[in-house]
């Protein structure tokens, strides 16, 4: 099983779109503009249109000379993601978007409005190769990595929708990004880190969202966790642990056969030590599988020993996928699990679940289409 897992950090560029403005850093943008025979100041001008004005159609970039717009569109704005459908629930405060890339690949993102923030859950891969059996995306396997621009443009589109009042609740501003959509972010390492830099840099280099408002999740690719710690970023690391014992985790999260729990927690401790950021532990509670009281006790003890006060457990009621044998734990079991983890000195709360009636679990909408 281990040999079949795509454990490299970077998959081949199969199906990738042509280079887009959002794939380029400032130096790359200036070089691209120079190749078009345009003055270098146009590079920042075009980038401000994309990152500050959230405009991705050069024909509408009115501060550019009209004859120049078609040239720029051809060179720097190849088609990325087209909307297949929007599906909303929770009185419109949750909206899931299904996109189709130029090669037919399907990608999802979910926008969630809360009283104090607007959060976008984005995808970093089309599908996922980690093969977790309770996850709809994992069941479908990996199609390909997304390009940096395909990741970034999910953010631009959601920010524009909020700004323009297209989502229930009126006009708003995108404040939080979580890499918890389709795919394993750290298996598409270079493009995810580049996307984080675009998302968090101020205009004209990015959207200016605070690094502390960005969460990057992983099932536990320990070397990549250490590498991320050394990037000089202040994003939150979320580790999808799902059980405190290797015997069960080998089944629930097959990559555990390569990097067991002790090694993952050691890497997480390195991340906390290096960045000063608290680690978030994601734990999908599954009825009669990983919800036993003794597992709650073991989880709390292991996390407290490895990370001390620099950890928080997000308990996630499982969002069942069609035809799956897995189901969410009953509420009394959930409450007892939380109590026992808290007793070990580790904060544990239940995540607010959204969008079950619109197939909001990662990969469900793509699978249906």
UniProtKB/TrEMBL annotation:
Q: Which CDD domains match?
A: Radical_SAM
Q: Where is the major localization of this protein?
A: cytoplasm
- Entry EC no(s): 2.1.1.192
Task: Supply the InterPro entries for this chain.
Answer: Aldolase_TIM (IPR013785), Methyltransferase_A (IPR040072), RlmN_N (IPR048641), RNA_MTrfase_RlmN (IPR027492), rRNA_lsu_MTrfase_RlmN/Cfr (IPR004383), rSAM (IPR007197), rSAM_sf (IPR058240)
GO MF annotation: an example: methyltransferase activity
Q: Where does S-adenosyl-L-methionine bind?
A: 183-184, 217, 240-242, 319
Domain Radical SAM core as annotated: residue spans: 114-357
Q: Which reaction does it catalyse?
A: adenosine(2503) in 23S rRNA + 2 reduced [2Fe-2S]-[ferredoxin] + 2 S-adenosyl-L-methionine = 2-methyladenosine(2503) in 23S rRNA + 5'-deoxyadenosine + L-methionine + 2 oxidized [2Fe-2S]-[ferredoxin] + S-adenosyl-L-homocysteine; adenosine(37) in tRNA + 2 reduced [2Fe-2S]-[ferredoxin] + 2 S-adenosyl-L-methionine = 2-methyladenosine(37) in tRNA + 5'-deoxyadenosine + L-methionine + 2 oxidized [2Fe-2S]-[ferredoxin] + S-adenosyl-L-homocysteine
Where is [4Fe-4S] cluster annotated to bind?
A: 128, 132, 135
Answer yes or no on keyword Iron-sulfur.
Answer: yes
Q: What else is known?
A: Reaction proceeds by a ping-pong mechanism involving intermediate methylation of a conserved cysteine residue.
**Name of the protein this chain belongs to:** Probable dual-specificity RNA methyltransferase RlmN
Quote the gene name from the UniProt entry.
rlmN
